[in-house]
Every structure is written in structure tokens, then in C-alpha cells.
Write a structure and sequence with these properties.
It is built from 2 helices and 28 strands. The protein has about 375 residues and is mainly β.
Length: about 375
């Protein structure tokens, strides 16, 4: 089990460690700044933190000494328009608003990082974040003209899954732009949203693959052809490498949510945090629960032990639920600054901190 968690929040990055006396904050960095994501690179131990500093822009920091000191990296940049471009075109030109996904490349790709951004660009770095290049084959797909924002004004790439068998195979999730897959390291892309449907679209367009809104997509490490997606209006599962999806209808008390985690060794086991859509975005009936399936979505258990069951209004963002490499320990953070840990696959939860800033993401160290 991993004994370290990186908690990205609206007011800083917090590192929690487990000792004989329990979980405690060991380090706090970037206090007062919004940290949207953190990544501990399992290949070289480097720690990355993505920040959103408002008027000062999006920043990326890197630490090679476990967070004791930080250096500034490059950030993804969109090409500026020519000086003689119309003023209206310049106003609408894409610019980096947030790093919404950050993943390490394969074991044989030292220095390679992938970043998903708002407004919907996928970037790659081959020098540990010093420089970045936009993946033009995905950006230039004609289907991108149909993409649109979900909770944000612009579409965004929030999920990046690097296939553990072959790092040239990459799967991404876009809100709202569907699921995409490449098998040649991004030189070409295929739209892989068949089977998803969108309740927010007119009936004649609800099955259109290029406008689907998967809130989060995860891949099973031991069975990489199995994917789970928490969609805006339901839960979907794929067992054929995203060639097709089928809807999971047994989940209660709601199919709406943002977060999903899949057991690293058991592709039929996954966890979700149901809520009320769209405007409310709170637990159903004020009871905070985690839904777990062990049979591929045929049935679900509602896990409540240690979670508040009256007047609970915690929202769990899409990156704020994680399972460690062993598959037994889970971490979950909420918009009210609560952080829970489960040591038994979600059967029981312990509140380890109730005073953090709103939590954007939690991630176990490898």
C-alpha cells in the first residue's frame, strides 16, 4: 500500500503521510495558490504541480527533492495568430486556461509527459516539462468543431490513459468531445464514444459520439482493454479497448457524478460518488455515499460507514478519488475540504482531515 497522498487544493498542495499514529500533513506547498493537479513520476521520482494563478496564468512546477524545493517548468502554449489576423479572430484565439490532466509516459520513455488542457488541447513534453508541443493530429480533427464546454466555457481534456502494454496507445476523455484513442503515439486518432448517449442533447443528436461528456475515464492496469467512464448522465463501461461502450444502469442512488476509480487488478471492481445533477451537484438527500461494484456493474453496494449521512453537501471532483496500486486503500477529497481514507476497499472510511481548502485532486504516490 502507498503511505503517501498528494492533495491538490484551491489553496495549496498538501502531502499526507501515514505513520504508526495515522495520517497527517507532512508538507504544504504553494499556500494560497490554486493547485489543480499533482503528478509523482514513477520513473524518476520527480514531483510536478500544476497551478492556476488567475491573472498570472497557468504555471507548472517541478521538484526533484520530494517537494523541498521547486523549479519552474515550461507550460503548454497555443500558437499566436499572425499580427495581421482580424481582431475578432484574435479575441477568439485559444489560450491556456488550465492544465486538467497530467500523466507520465511509458517506462521506456524517459522525460515524456502528457498534458490535457482547457481549451481542449493535448500536449506532449519529452524533456520533463521544460518544453511542450501541441498534438496537432487531435487538435486538427474536424470533429473538434462540434466540441463545447461542460462546466467550463471551453472543452477540456481531463483524462489521459497510457496503456501499460504499449505506451504508444493512448486514450483521452474530453468534456464535451467524447473519448478518443491513438495507437501510434498521437500521429492519428479514432473517436471511441460509440454506445454513450447524452441526455442534454436533442433526441436526434443524443448518440453523436463527438459531443459526449465523459466526466472521467479510467483504465484497469491489469486488464487494459477495460475502461470505466463516469459520464454526465450515467456510467459506462468498455471491455474492448473503447471500441464500444455499454451503459451501467444498476447504480444507485444516481448515475450522475464526476469521479471514478477502478481496481488495478480487478477490472470488474470500480467506485463512484453519486450525486444530484445538474444545478444542485450535491449528495442525494444529503447522504454522502460511495457506490462500489464488484461484478462489472451488474450490481452496486452503497458504502456509508464513516461518511456523513445527514445534511452532507460534499462534492467530489473528477480527480478527487483515487485507489492505490494495491487496490485496497482509497482516498477521497471534497469541495468542503474533507479528506477520507479507506483501508478496506471502501467498506469503511476515516475522516483524516476536515480543514483543508476545497480539494481538486488526490493522488497516491506510486
Amino acid at each position: 500500500m502507498s503511505d503517501r497522498i498528494y492533495v491538490s487544493t484551491r489553496k495549496g498542495l498538501f502531502t499526507l503521510e501515514r505513520s504508526a499514529t495515522g495520517w497527517a500533513v507532512r508538507n504544504a506547498a504553494f499556500l494560497g495558490d490554486a493547485v489543480t493537479l499533482a503528478l509523482h513520476d514513477p520513473r524518476d521520482g520527480a514531483l510536478y504541480a500544476a497551478l492556476n494563478l488567475g491573472h498570472f496564468g497557468v504555471k507548472l512546477r517541478k521538484s526533484t527533492d520530494d517537494g523541498k524545493s521547486w523549479d519552474e517548468c515550461g507550460v503548454p502554449e497555443y500558437d499566436p495568430l499572425p499580427d495581421d489576423a482580424p481582431a475578432e479572430a484574435k479575441e477568439q484565439a485559444p489560450s491556456l486556461q488550465q492544465i486538467w490532466a497530467l500523466e507520465a509516459g511509458g517506462a521506456g520513455e524517459p522525460g515524456r509527459l502528457w498534458a490535457g488542457t482547457i481549451p481542449g488541447g493535448l500536449f506532449v513534453s519529452d524533456d520533463g516539462g521544460a518544453s511542450w508541443a501541441l498534438n496537432r493530429p487531435l487538435w486538427d480533427r474536424p470533429e473538434r468543431d462540434a466540441w463545447f464546454g461542460g462546466g467550463y466555457d471551453h472543452p477540456g481534456i481531463h483524462s489521459i490513459c497510457v496503456d501499460p502494454r504499449d505506451s504508444r496507445k493512448l486514450s483521452v476523455g474530453v468534456s464535451c468531445g467524447g473519448a478518443w484513442r491513438t495507437e501510434d503515439a498521437g500521429e492519428s486518432w479514432a473517436l471511441r464514444s460509440d454506445g454513450m448517449w447524452a441526455a442534454y442533447m436533442p433526441p436526434e443528436k443524443k448518440d453523436a459520439p463527438e459531443i459526449q461528456d465523459p466526466h472521467r475515464i479510467v483504465q484497469c492496469a491489469a486488464s487494459p482493454d477495460v475502461f470505466w467512464a463516469q459520464h454526465h448522465n450515467g456510467v459506462f463501461r468498455s471491455t474492448d479497448g473503447m471500441a464500444s461502450w455499454h451503459e451501467v444502469t444498476a447504480i444507485e442512488p444516481s448515475g450522475f457524478g464526476f469521479a471514478v476509480a477502478v481496481h488495478p487488478a480487478e477490472p470488474t471492481t470500480a467506485w463512484f460518488v453519486p450525486g444530484v445533477k445538474d444545478e444542485c451537484r450535491i449528495p442525494v438527500d444529503g447522504r454522502f455515499v460511495v457506490a462500489r461494484t464488484r461484478d462489472g456493474g451488474e450490481s452496486f453496494e452503497l458504502l456509508r460507514e464513516g461518511l456523513p449521512q445527514t445534511h452532507a453537501y460534499d462534492l467530489v471532483f473528477r480527480h478527487a478519488l483515487d485507489v492505490d496500486a494495491g487496490g485496497d486503500r482509497l482516498a477521497m477529497g471534497s469541495t468542503t475540504g474533507n479528506l477520507w481514507i479507506s483501508e478496506d476497499q471502501g467498506d469503511a472510511w476515516t475522516l483524516v482531515n476536515a480543514h483543508l481548502p476545497p480539494v481538486y485532486a488526490v493522488r497516491f504516490a506510486p
